[in-house]
Amino acid sequence: MPKMEVDVDRCKGCYLCIQVCPKKCIEKSDKFSKSGYYPAKDSKEGCCIACQSCARICPDLAIRVYK
Ligand code: SF4
Ligand code: SF4
User: Fold this and answer.
1) pLDDT tens, 40-55?
2) How far away, in angstroms, is 34 Cα from ligand 2 center?
């Protein structure tokens, strides 16, 4: 099943990924990361279609998408 994962230690909380996801599968986490950001996270299982838009736009290369 397609899914995306955010490396929370790389994420800087810019939320560009949330803006580009065509399926609205990404949301802001309510937990602080070690670096002091609220990282992005997948919002619901089975939502992702592995289009890679989030991984392509992330300036911090924090997203991996699995098919
Ligand atoms: S685009 Fe990358 S750095 Fe920005 S919120 Fe998403 S995962 Fe974090
Ligand atoms: S790969 Fe596409 S569908 Fe999946 S979370 Fe990223 S932008 Fe959304």
Assistant:
1) 999 999 999 999 999 9
2) 24
Q: What is the pTM of this model?
A: 0.96
* 3-66 is classed CATH 3.40.50.300: no
Instruction: For residues 5 and 17, give the distance between their C-alpha atoms in angstroms, rounded to a whole number.
Output: 12
The HSE-up count of residue 47 (CA atoms within 13 Å, CB side) is 14
Domain extent listing, the chain: 3-66
Ligand nearest to the CA of 62: 1
Ligand 2 pocket test: which of 19, 24, 26 has the largest number of ligand atoms within 8 Å of its C-beta? Answer: 26
